[in-house]
Amino acid sequence: MKVVIVNTSDIQGGAAVAANRLCKALLKHGVEAGMLVLNRKSSSSYVSAANGGFIHKKLNFIRFLWERGTIFLCNHFSRKNLFQLSLANTGTDITDHPLIKQADVVHLHWINHGFLSLHDLRKLFSSGKPVVWTLHDLWPLTGICHYPDACTRYQTLCFKCPKQQQPVFPDLAKCVYTRKQKSCISPIQFVGCSRWITEQARQSGLAAAHTFNAIPNPIDSTIFIVKDKKQCRRSLHLPADKRLLLFAAAKVSDERKGVAYLVEACRLLKEQFAGEDQPEILLMGAHTDELVASFPFKVHSLGYLSDTDTIVNVYNSADLFVVPSLEDNLPNTIMEAMACGTPCVGFNTGGIPEMIDHGKNGYVARQKDAADLAKGIRWVLMYPEYQQLRNNSRTKAETCYSEERVSAMYLEIYKKGLE
Fold first, then answer.
1. Is 277 buried (19+), middle (13-18) or exposed (0-12) by CB count in 10 A?
2. DSSP letter assigned to residue 107
3. Fewer C-beta within 10 Å: the chain N or C terminus?
4. Which helix (H) or strand (E) holds 382?
């Protein structure tokens, strides 16, 4: 069986990381798999660029600017929500690419930012090949937003998107939603990374005639492993005797990642920890320096890290991983932390409560409740059987997110598409 995994990037962003890991897992288990991407950043032999060369790269950038520019213009020249919306109004036709032509199954992941247009998708669906589409967010089944928040219009007909300034002419959400209805001309096997997003997707007005399954992202538990905490801290020049709280995201200042609630939780914790017992903060991701002054505790700003060994050392250095996201699918960061034996605390939203087993490998706080988030952080740090939390975290990662388990589940989906 030949499978081609299609994603905008091969390593940049959570969807890219998950798609890349799946490709490697499939290869390990005997599947002839490859990745087709717009922006190839790695040198992996199984990754191919949809179009290469200097001119094509410039054209790709122009397509990206064209889409963002359209959103910017229709949003009254406001940058608010600029990257929370996608139009797929321009892209690259990949139907004649050798990987697509040779594939038995086409597996889409995150294809925005100028990779595939709705016209390109329609051509792909018309090719007759089985299409599997993993939902890293809800964009494939909404109008233009990646996460609808409290909006339910996508369940019937998107219009006047709340994430846009009003009035907007034309109504982008309605236009794109209507075009998606016409583009999905053949049944698609949608796969949600979490049960939460799968159920959200099923409610879409675009969901008719399609099938839905929930399969988590995989993680290589031979790379993300439990290591000696003291050695890891020494390698990163971190204090050996402090409690360290880790917060990480591709862009830590992203409002959806909920850092404001973590800051408020830390302010509440400041009153509960006195003197030398005060914890310290680890920040990992882009724009970490912007947040240093916000915290009442000492902050170690690690910036954006791409070296896997260093990232594993960071997870092992932390006593706790905090994920205060306001809406999230199935964060790779949680399974990475758990695989390194680091307990997690997060809000009861999206797929997070599917990953954190409350009171067993971490703490699930009430949504948007900084006080309960602070309570969860303190609960983990002061838990008398802390080592058991670590063991349970590692077990959850090995049991639920193993490459073998996830690749086997996807193979069943592929086989159904070929029947």
1. exposed
2. E
3. C
4. helix 370-382
> pLDDT above 90 covers what percent of the chain?
85
Q: Name the DSSP class of 141.
A: G
CB 240 within 8 A of CB 175: no
Whether the CB-CB separation of 63 and 93 falls below 8 Å is answered with: no
Residue 320 φ/ψ, nearest 5 degrees = -160, 140
46 SS3 class: coil
Nearest to 357 by CA among 370, 372, 346: 346
State the pLDDT at residue 276.
66
364 phi/psi in degrees, rounded to 5: -105, 115
From 353, 364, 362, select the one nearest 328 (Cα to Cα): 353
CB atoms within 10 A of CB 197: 27
Cβ partners under 8 Å of residue 116, min gap 6: 6, 88, 91, 92, 94, 108, 124
Distances (CA, A) of 383 to 319, 322, 379: 11, 16, 6
173 touches 75 (CB < 8 A): no
Structure tokens given for 150:
């409290």
Helix, strand, coil shares, percent, the chain, to 5: 40, 15, 40
Backbone angles phi, psi at 37, to 5 degrees: -130, 165
Q: In sequence order, what DSSP letters do the residues of 257-298 get, joined into one string?
A: G-HHHHHHHHHHHHTTS-GGG--EEEEEEETGGGTGGG-SS-
Distance (Å, whole) CA 307 – CA 325? 24
Nearest to 42 by CA among 366, 277, 404, 308: 308
- Determine the Cα–Cα distance for residues 221 and 231; give it in Å rounded to an integer: 20
Tell me the whole-structure pTM to 2 decimals.
0.93
At 299, is the secondary structure helix, strand, or coil?
Answer: strand
pLDDT digits (tens, 9 = 90+) for 367-378: 999 999 999 999
- Cis before 296 (ω within 30): no
Report, as an integer, the average pLDDT of 47-71. 91
